[in-house]
Specification:
The protein has 326 residues and is an alpha+beta fold. It contains 7 helices and 16 strands. The chain has 3 domains: 82 residues, no CATH class; 128 residues, Tetrahydropterin Synthase, Chain A; 74 residues, no CATH class.
């Protein structure tokens, strides 16, 4: 006849559930459950309990559900069963984050941007039997770390959907999403509470601490460069079309030996309406003068840059339009 044993667990930091190592239990053994703990007996895939804090002799008189466990009514009879202790009502703090950037469409700029997010949350086991029934056999151990890894996938999926939802409501850019962290935290916490409850776990104080674009990605760098350029234009007071006109002028000045280049520059400058009209006219005159020189074939011939008329040698004013030639 074996000695009556005491079955108990002192608990350990970060450990959510622990299995008593001896699976050959004896009738009348003492099950001791401490405060903030529950015990669950498991036999042949069935769960019995939970058993709350206190000292409980493993006998059918005190615990009627043991009737199905006992293999014999003989005193001190042994039977095979597992005893799990679950740490309850003590919030465990865990971190979550995206191991790799996730693509989220920026509703303001209509491009996909890689995003990183991280935060923290607290959780506690609410339903011990449900908790063990859902996770027993899936995890090597029930620690804060292993549970955090198990729930990470659903958290990241929900986080991506919540970020996209908040952005689509009013066109918030991912570059300004930091102003909506409290709102996203509340929405995510509400959604994830139902997911965690399915595992017998209550979610407490879910927080999103940071959402940021992956600065190492080329698309993010290009977007930031474009926004910086736009800010520069807004400060100076000119548009993109005007800047292209300035670029065309600069290109024409660097190719002053070719009439076609100057004429092309005049056409390009016409795209910037406010800047190009007077300059375009001057360019057209210059182009006509160059075309005339090319037609006469006279290497020393001079022409009015305003109207294109041939100039007599030494003339200071154009005989055609009266414009000053020097």
């Amino acid at each position: 006849m074996g000695a009556i044993e005491t079955i108990q667990w002192d608990g350990a930091p970060g450990v959510v559930a622990w299995r008593y190592p001896n699976v050959e239990l004896r009738h009348m053994s003492q099950l001791v459950v401490k405060e903030a703990q529950e015990a669950v007996l498991v036999k042949d895939g069935e769960f019995y309990g939970p058993v709350g804090p206190g000292r409980h002799p493993l006998e059918t008189k005190n615990l009627p559900f043991l009737t199905r466990l006992a293999s014999s009514r003989a005193s001190n009879a042994a039977y095979a069963a597992e005893v799990w202790f679950v740490q309850k009502s003590i919030p465990l703090n865990a971190k979550w984050g995206t191991p790799d950037p996730v693509l989220v469409e920026d509703c303001k700029y209509r491009i996909a941007i890689p995003v990183r997010a991280y935060g923290s949350y607290g959780f506690a086991v609410e339903d011990s039997c449900r908790f063990l029934a859902r996770l027993l056999g899936r995890l090597p151990a029930f620690t804060e770390k292993t549970l955090g890894a198990h729930f990470k996938g659903v958290i990241i999926t929900r986080a991506k959907d919540a970020i996209a939802s908040v952005m689509s409501e009013d066109g918030t850019s991912i570059l300004n999403i930091g102003t909506r962290l409290n709102e996203i935290s509340a929405e995510l916490g509400k959604t994830l509470s139902a997911d965690f409850a399915d595992y017998g776990v209550s979610l407490r104080l879910f927080m999103v601490n940071s959402i940021s674009a992956d600065e190492s990605d080329p698309s993010v760098a290009q977007l930031r460069k474009a926004l910086a350029k736009k800010a520069e234009m807004d400060i100076i007071g000119y548009s993109y079309a005007q800047e292209r006109s300035f670029d065309a002028l600069q290109t024409a000045a660097g190719n002053e030996g070719a009439a076609g280049s100057v004429m092309g520059a005049g056409i390009g400058i016409g795209l910037g309406a406010g800047v190009a009209a007077p300059i375009g006219a001057a360019m057209a005159g210059a182009g006509a003068a160059m075309a005339g020189a090319a037609a006469t074939g006279a290497p020393g011939a001079k022409f009015c840059i305003n109207c294109g008329a041939a100039l007599p040698p030494g003339a200071k004013f154009c005989p055609g339009c009266g414009a000053k030639t020097v």
